[in-house]
Write a structure and sequence with these properties.
mainly alpha; 0% strand; 118 residues; 7 helices; globular
Length: 118
């Protein structure tokens, strides 16, 4: 059971960190990459551990999402996975960029319109 919850929480974190959304065919960053970057954030976002090495993943994902298409793809991935992870504290997940010193110009939320992410 824990093996299923962990990947689902990672995906939700990605959805909450909605860093980008773009046409699937043009973006270079897929959901698998988003999950890989944000995996270290799972203990923190589920109130089961400290921030730890999470910021390395947040900063890595932020750096990897170079184009509007990349950022829109990341956003859409995070949104699509957000509803699948009930153990994730959405407020903690939304606060990860600030906690990690990453400044993004939009609100991280499942209601974010990813098509407007530049």
């Amino acid at each position: 059971m824990a093996g299923i919850i962990k990947p689902m929480c990672i995906v939700l974190i990605a959805a909450v960190l909605a860093v980008a959304v773009a046409p699937r065919g043009e973006a270079a960053i897929g959901c698998g990459s988003v999950v890989s970057y944000l995996n270290p954030c799972l203990p923190y976002a589920t109130n089961k551990g400290p921030l730890g090495s999470c910021c390395s993943g947040v900063k890595g994902l932020y750096g990897a999402a170079q184009t509007p298409s990349d950022r829109q793809s990341v956003c859409n991935c995070l949104k699509s996975l957000a509803g699948s992870y009930p153990d994730v504290d959405l407020n903690k997940a939304a606060g990860l960029p600030g906690q990690c010193g990453v400044n993004i110009p939009y609100k991280i939320s499942p209601s974010t319109d990813c098509s407007k992410v530049n």
